[in-house]
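Re: the pair you flagged

First of the two:
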Amino acid sequence: MISTHIITGFLGVGKTTTLEHLIRQKPKNEKWAVLLNEFGQTGLDALLLACPEVVIKQVPGGCLCCVTQMPFQVMLNQLIRFERPDRIFIEPSGLGHPDEIVKLLKQKQYEKILNVEAVLTLVDARHLSNERHRQHKIYRRQLAVADVFIANKMDLAEQADKQQFNDLLAEYKRTGFIIENGELPISCLQQNKEHENSFRIFKKAALNQPFFTQTLMLDKKDIWSQEALEIYFESLDILRTKGLVLSESGGLLVNAVMGEVTIKKVELVEEEPRLEFIDYKPIDIGRIKAQLESLKL
């Protein structure tokens, strides 16, 4: 039986960073595989997780559990058949419905192959007082499907945020852990599943996605400074920005969530430089393109 872990959470909560930290704790005698999904087409998370000892596959473009279910199943079956891992980690899009993934993994075809472990849902405690997050259908589904809540980025939270997290644990009657910078101990993977059927409170998947997305393709001749990009994306009023841009010293992976910007250097790769934006409102991609043009070196 392959231990199978779902790590879910809303946009920008730190799922990929958490996976990166878990991979650094991988026992030498275990073979791991990771199946990633991104709502848009960038599919760049694999660059962050790159590790020769871990098999990493991606299913870009759309909600993994609704729009791209067949590609997901094909990729999962290939991992099982050809890689034969001891553990599989599944990271759905921040806009995905993990309850649908649980249902899929519980199908008869996988019952003697996959041992579905406790579902871990990451939350940013600072969002718990935000009605826009708490009342969002996708956010609520991600909370309901969880067996364990992981409060990430707690180094940035206030005392009131920590109390909100405690209230969340009491409301949902779940186990919880507090971490910083995605530093989740591997021991947290061994939590017991006590709420296996809780996801069934949602009868239907919400197929109409209340988000707007835009992708800006960049030229390989376009060069920016990391400092200029950090300042720009800190001021950009967009829910989520992710992408690959080029600097004088190499590639830069950009990850910005409501003004919080992380930029990591990566080796130049075959990937086309591009930026993807996700927001609740229509995105003026022409304005963003013009602003970025003015910042080029």
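Second of the two:
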Amino acid sequence: MRIIKDWRGLPEDARGAVVALGNFDGVHLGHAHVLRAAHRARPNAPLGVLTFEPHPRELLRPYERPFRLTLAPARADGLAALGVQIIYEMPFDAQFSEMNAETFLSEVLDKGVGACHLVCGPDFAFGRRRGGDTHFLAARAEALGIGLTVVRPFNDEAGQLSSSRIRRALQDGYPERAALKLGHHWAIRGIVIPGDRRGRAIGFPTANVLLGRHLEPARGVYAVTTALADGRRLRGVANIGRRPTVSAVPESLLEVNLFDFAGDIYGEEIEVALIAFLRPERRFAGVDALRAQIAADAAEARRVLDLAVPPSA
């Protein structure tokens, strides 16, 4: 798979794809539905996705708390797993945000990417102040000789599936519900940083990862599986909560105790998948009470993981 970060001066072998449009945050079952429609529309053309980095909402509403389900590398991996061959990852900055719909269609999608066919959902909007919609696309794409498929929403028993619904499930403490909508367990990917070693001191060492731009799910304890940089996947128990930084600004932190593991993985990237929410976070009267609760959490996580099954696709 190729990741292309500009629409100008592309080689011919990077042009002519059928292009699905959207943010694709989470790469969920609704996104897979759109990509299947894109492949059906032009099965002999390369399958491409045009998306944005950062997510437009991060630029336009920087005061909001982090909300991303997937950052760019995880999103790319998820799209590749669904057969995407080219990602046009457009840098979304202040100048790009001022581009009107007509310029975006003619300069980026037509002259730049050279899309042979466009695919999007019915709510897709683009250009300055979201000035372009599917009606605009239908009229202008045809004039430019570009095909268009507007895909009907992907629904489950609760209605239209969306990244927003998945975020709510995670924030409410239901990672298994999120997994059913994603088609895979939701995971946090990041670099292991040094901690305060309190876990090691009480017999439960942890690998610590800052959530950064990831959505913060319900704070508390989870049964998890963790993929290490060397490809191993380990089971464990994790806590997600807040801690003060050196600047006294609270940061969201994931601390995972990996079962039956004693290696040094500082500085390595790991991916921690949330399987089940065990309990909300709470304070303890002392170290002994904390140690006893962590032991109970670890035992419960092992029991839950023994029973866990992959999310249905």
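The chain has two domains: 2-156, 181-307.

-B.
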